[in-house]
Amino acid sequence: MEACDVVIVGAGPAGLSAALYTGRARLSTIVLEKSIPGGQILVTDWIENYPGFPDGIAPFDLMDKFRAQAEAFGAKIVTDDARTIVRDGDGWIVKGGAADYRARAVIVATGAAYRRLGLPNEANLVGKGVSYCATCDGAFFRDSEIAVVGGGDQALMEAIFLTKFAKTVHLIHRRDAFRGTKILQERVAANAKIAVHWSSVIVELRGEDKLEALLLKNTQSGTEHALEVEGLFVSIGMDPLNEMVKGLVELNEWGEIVVKPNMATSQPGIFAAGDIIDFTPHQVATAVGTGVHAAISVDEYLSQK
């Protein structure tokens, strides 16, 4: 069993930013990541809105810089699937698939996963017309025909936002009424660049090297028709990756970890940051900020002990 001051679960922007700061605080740090460092950001084709890169940067390149900087200050990144966290005296043990890790404090930065449509060609077209983040990728579709699928607040906000770039935004919703707040519904209805497709679901994504069209099916009549678009923004929600902390820390109704202003959870010694927590926008910059905040709070917590 390896022992350290801090175990950070997740090597996305929040986790690696936290590791940089715990390393700088001279706290021995292990970062557990079940796949490659980067997290959900790696599904994005290009990042234009992270400060310091006016020409944009490839997600993998950005996260490789995050990783290198964290390692330069002593963080050890381990490929392992963290599964549970259990109390160990006044500390914690993070149980992984390959080994167990004892720590005085834990930062959970497991993030969240975009819900996917589950269509056969979806994974192949990610970054080739299919996106899950309007603020990340909207500017790539200037003067284009694009679509948004969803009916909640996020989908309505993304449709409105995308009208800044697109020729037309086709808003596809499986019901005959939106679930989003009234004011957003009013803004959608008043925007001439948004075309709403009620009672419709996407049954097929067409295109090989890039998205070319959607096949829509009307849920009431059963009729189908093709809709030619260059981009599709899937906005049907996100699922927090919270399996390892269910029953351990307080979660809100959406399954996100409830944190205090200092990123502390309901369990002393366990902190959280990034898309897994309950009040942060799902952006790289905010994930970084909460990761840094969690690390500083961990240093204060351990100093007091």
What report would you give on this structure?
By secondary structure, the chain is α/β, with parallel strands linked by helices. It contains seven helices and 17 strands. The chain has helices spanning 13-24, 59-72, 122-125, 134-137, 153-162, 182-190, 284-304, and strands at residues 2-9, 29-33, 76-79, 82-88, 91-96, 100-108, 112-114, 130-131, 145-149, 168-172, 194-197, 200-206, 213-218, 224-228, 231-234, 238-240, 270-272. The strands form four sheets. Strands 1, 2, 3, 4, 5, 6 and 17 form a seven-stranded mixed β-sheet that branches. A hairpin with a 2-residue loop joins strand 4 (82-88) and strand 5 (91-96). Helix 1 (13-24) packs parallel to helix 2, helix 1 runs parallel beside helix 7 (284-304) and helix 5 packs parallel to helix 6 (182-190). The model has no long low-confidence stretch (mean pLDDT 94).
Query: Overall 3D geometry?
Result: elongated
Q: Any low-confidence stretches, pLDDT <50, length ≥5?
A: none
Counting DSSP E segments of at least 2 residues, the number of strands comes to: 17
Helix content: 10-25%
* Class by SSE composition: alpha/beta
Radius of gyration: 21 Å
Ends apart, CA distance between termini:
23 Å
Mean pLDDT: 94
What are the SSEs and their pairings?
Blueprint: E1 2-9, H1 13-24, E2 29-33, H2 59-72, E3 76-79, E4 82-88, E5 91-96, E6 100-108, E7 112-114, H3 122-125, E8 130-131, H4 134-137, E9 145-149, H5 153-162, E10 168-172, H6 182-190, E11 194-197, E12 200-206, E13 213-218, E14 224-228, E15 231-234, E16 238-240, E17 270-272, H7 284-304
Parallel strand pairs: 1-2, 1-6, 2-3, 6-17, 8-15, 9-10, 9-15, 10-11
Antiparallel strand pairs: 4-5, 5-6, 7-16, 12-13, 13-14
